[in-house]
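Inverse folding, one chain.
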């Protein structure tokens, strides 16, 4: 009888441990990520709120919108190791991400977070966009380049233009050298060779390193884009 009692006690403890291991369930977002634009000093912060996740098993991710390459924070720092002052700082049990001295090469990149816990669950947030204020300000054309018929036209010389939908996804079926639509217009500009620089309405852009494409967002005026 005594052995039976011990067996039942051990069995109950095993069952309790099993259910406690899975009691939390999957991580849950209480506040979702939102797209952000750097401030005048080149800094930006992304934040979310979630429960039932383990910070040691979770990570921030950064996606190149042109190549689709996905990098974690440490991988991004290594990739941009020559960018002066650039830093990726995670705090608040990984619920806050601050980036300083963000290079223009990261304009248009996608950011998301992957949350996991010890119960084996993993959830991924929606991807949001990182925009660089320096690029947005330089992309605004001067007076006199406005619309004449209620639409915006983007003309690319030596480049291809691919419109982006509301979710920031490119529509490859509409790839062309000229794109006209009602504003605001967002497009992905692609090149068949590495781009060291390009010009938008006479303003020259030179990223930290050569790219195969770049994004122009929320355009409300006609643009002429040229590969240098």
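Residues assigned per position:
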């Amino acid at each position: 009888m005594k052995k039976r009692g011990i067996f039942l006690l051990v069995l109950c403890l095993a069952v309790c441990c099993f259910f406690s291991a899975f009691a939390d369930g999957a991580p849950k977002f209480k506040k979702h990520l939102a797209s952000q634009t750097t401030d005048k000093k080149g800094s930006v912060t992304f934040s979310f709120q979630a429960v039932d996740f383990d910070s040691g098993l979770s990570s921030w991710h950064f996606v190149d919108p042109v190549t689709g390459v996905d990098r974690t924070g440490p991988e991004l720092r290594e990739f941009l190791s020559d960018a002066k002052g650039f830093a990726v700082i995670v705090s608040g049990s990984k619920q806050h991400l601050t980036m300083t001295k963000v290079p223009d090469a990261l304009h248009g990149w996608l950011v998301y977070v992957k949350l996991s816990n010890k119960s084996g669950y993993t959830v991924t947030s929606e991807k949001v966009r990182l925009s660089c204020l320096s690029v947005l300000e330089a992309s605004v054309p001067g007076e006199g380049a406005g619309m004449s018929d209620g639409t915006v036209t983007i003309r690319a010389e030596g480049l291809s233009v691919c419109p982006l939908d509301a979710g920031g996804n490119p529509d490859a079926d509409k790839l062309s050298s000229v794109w006209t639509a009602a504003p605001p217009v967002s497009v992905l500009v692609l090149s068949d060779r590495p781009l060291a620089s390009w010009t938008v309405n006479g303003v020259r852009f030179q990223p930290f390193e050569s790219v195969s494409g770049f994004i122009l967002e929320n355009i409300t005026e006609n643009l002429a884009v040229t590969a240098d």
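Residues 190 and 199 are 13 Å apart (CA to CA). The two ends are 88 Å apart (CA to CA).
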